[in-house]
Amino acid sequence: MINIAVAGYGYWGPNLVRNIQDSKDARVVSCCDASGERLAQVTSKYPSIEVTTNYDDLLNDPAVDAIVISTPVATHYDFARRAMEHGKHVLLEKPATTSVSEAEKLVDLAEKKKLTFMVDHTFIYTGAVRKMKELVEQGELGELYYIDSVRINLGLFQRDVNVLWDLAPHDIAILEHLVKERPSSVCANGACHVGNGHENVAYLTVYYPSGLIAHFHNNWLSPVKIRSMLVGGSKKTIHYDDMEVSEKVKVYDRGVDITTPEGVRDVRVSYRLGDMWAPRLDQTEALNRMIGEFTGCVQTGRSSLTDGVSGLNVVKILEASEMSIKHRGKEIKI
Fold it and tell me: In 3D, which of 95, 64, 91 has the Cα closest to residue 80?
């Protein structure tokens, strides 16, 4: 049984605690938060969990094997570094850190200490994304041409990061998971309309050496909530709509076929209008599977699907996108 401490019981903390408590291999032994009101909620629901407002109490408790950190991103590096220095395995909320240099230091420290360092990119563990990964690896889509993602809604405005740092990590992590090729550069544009200095509308494009292009649209001002992604290939295209209840993933055998007949200079484009089908998806809760991945990695020492390196790769794109926005869409090499 792995003893886990949870730092942060705000928006995401209660979901983490619930899934850890439901795990057969782990339990929450303590919880830390700056708010006494939130800690009272923990005590009311889980009387066996010790609570504290002092993060050092988690670090200094020899019974704690691992710490799950669900606090504002500005605190991630310091909290994770100190946890590792005290020999604790770390599961870190997304995005991993506020900079590439911080993420690199955590990856190096975890390797040096031989500790599990994992980032909570929850969508990687959904039945939908797992099925998408399976289809891509089986070659169902053929050569990947483009990924087009829209993740927009009304709020929640963050005080410390822009909309890309808040919403894009989900879909960049999916990109990182589906595509083995490393990106070469990014371009990004955005605008702030509320006077807090952080962009609330942003557009990010990621370029790959092969010609694959990925585009992300994030918005805190949209009156409608959209969670949509297209993954287009030379053979087929996936439409992933996370707002759908039963058919989140649809596969379309529709596209174009390009031919250049012998003796003809111009290419011929023919349109393929084939079938659409919706594969059956695993309904296991993503957080439940993610906690299982974390405990399994702690027990065996293996790397996870969303290890520190994958978290670092997401931060590389985010940091480059922020630099591009500051230079009005300038292409930034990665």
Answer: 91
Instruction: Evaluate if residue 287 carries a pLDDT over 80.
Output: yes
pLDDT in tens, 288-307: 999 999 999 999 999 999 99
pTM, rounded to two decimals: 0.93
The pair of three-digit structure tokens given for residue 30, joined into one six-digit string: 């303590």
Residues 47 and 187 occupy one common structural domain: no
Whether 234 contacts 141, CB under 8 Å: yes
Residue 221's SS3 state is: strand
* 45-66 core/surface letters (b: 16 or more CB in 10 A; e: else): ebeebbbbeebeebbebeebbb
Joined together, the tokens standing for residue 72 give 């504002």
Do 178 and 310 contact (CB within 8 A), yes or no? Answer: no
* Cβ neighbours of residue 256 closer than 8 Å, sequence gap 6 or more: 269, 270, 271, 272
Distance between CA atoms of residues 13 and 324, nearest Å: 32
Asked whether the beta carbons of 242 and 148 are under 8 A apart, the reply is no
Total tally of structural domains belonging to the chain: 2
CA distances from 244 to 9, 128, 156, 237, 287 (A): 29, 11, 21, 17, 19
Q: What angle do CA 39, 170, 172 make, to 5 degrees?
A: 145
**pLDDT band at residue 263 using 50, 70 and 90 as cut-offs:** low
CATH assignment at residue 86:
3.40.50.720
**SS3 (DSSP) at 304:** coil
Pair of tokens at residue 229: 């992604």
